[in-house]
Write a structure and sequence with these properties.
five-stranded mixed beta sheet; transmembrane; Cupredoxin; 353 residues; alpha+beta
Amino acid sequence: MTAFLTLIIVLFIAIAIWQMVKIFDLAQVGSSNSQVATEKDNTINAYLMMGFLVFIYAITIASFWYLGDLPLMSNSASEHGPGLDNLMIISMILIFIVQTITQFLLHYFAYKYKGEKGRKALFYADNNTLEAIWTFIPVVVLAALIIWGLFTWTSIMNVEETEDTIVVELYAQQFNWKARYAGEDNTLGMANVRLIDIDRANILGVDESDPNAQDDVITTELHLPVGRPVLFKMRSQDVLHSAYMPHFRAQMNCVPGMITQFGFTPSVTTSDMRQNPDIQEKVANINSIRLGNKEKIEAKGQELLYEFDYLLLCNKICGTSHYNMQMKIIVETQEEYDAWMKEQKLFKDSLTK
C-alpha cells in the first residue's frame, strides 16, 4: 500500500511539473515556442472536462459509501450527540447538493461552449437578478446553519453545576491523561503546576492545604454514570492538548495556564454500545486484521483481540508520542459507578508521608 501511494504521489508530481512547463511555454508570447490552441485541442479538453466531472461524482459517492459514517450515525453516546449529528448530516447534504449543481454547470458549460471557429462568446456586463439570487440564498442558508450551530454549541458549553452534576478535571501532559473527581463535596480543590511535588506523589499540583481538595480522587481511568450530567474542567501541564471524545461528540482544547470546560450527559453504557451492530462490525474488521498480524502483535506483548471501549484522545499533535495519548472511558450504571468510586483512594490518603 505504501509503495502504491508513493507511486501515485510521484505521478502527480510529474504531471504538475509537466503542466508548469507547458504554462511557461505558453507564457512566452511572441517567441517561436508559443502555441495556439486548435479546435482539436479545445474538443479534447472539453471531453476531459466532462470526464473529470464523472470522476468527481464517482469519487464523492465512493467516499461516502466506503469511508463515510453518515448513514451509520448510530454510535453517538451523549444526549447532545444526535443533535450534533443532525447538524452535520444537514450540512453535508446541502454541501453535496450545491457541489453537484455548481460542478455540473462549470464542466458542462466548458464542454458546451468550447472554442470553435466562427463562434463568438456572449458577454453579460451584469445581471442584477442573478446577483441577487446567488447572494440571497447562501446568506439565508448559512445564517440558518450558524444559528442552529450556536444553539447546539450552547447546549454543550452552558452546563450548570447542580447537585446531580459530576465535576471532573481532565489533566493533560505529554503523553497521558489523569482524571480528578471532585469527591463528596463536588468541588475541586485548587491546583497549580507550581505545586507539583513528585516526592509527595502530588503529580497534579493540587493544593494540599485546600479543604476542598482532601476528598478529591485522582485516577488513570475515566468512569461515568449513564444519564448523569458531567462537567469537565481541563488543564494542561506543558503544551496545547485537545480533549477529544468522539463517541460523545465532544472536544475542547487544554491550554497551559488556563482552565477550559465543557459538559455532556452520557446516554449509552459501554456494555450497551458493544452490542451496537455497527460497532460489532468494526470490531470484527479490526480483529480480522489483527489475526493476520498475530506474530507481530504478540511480539509487542499486546492483546491479540480488540474489544471496544470509549476513549479520551488528544486531538492536537503534541509531540512524538501524541498518537499514544489516550485514556479509557467506562460508562456504567450508577450502582457500578458508586462501587468503583468506593474503591478509589482519596487525595489526602494518596500522598506520600
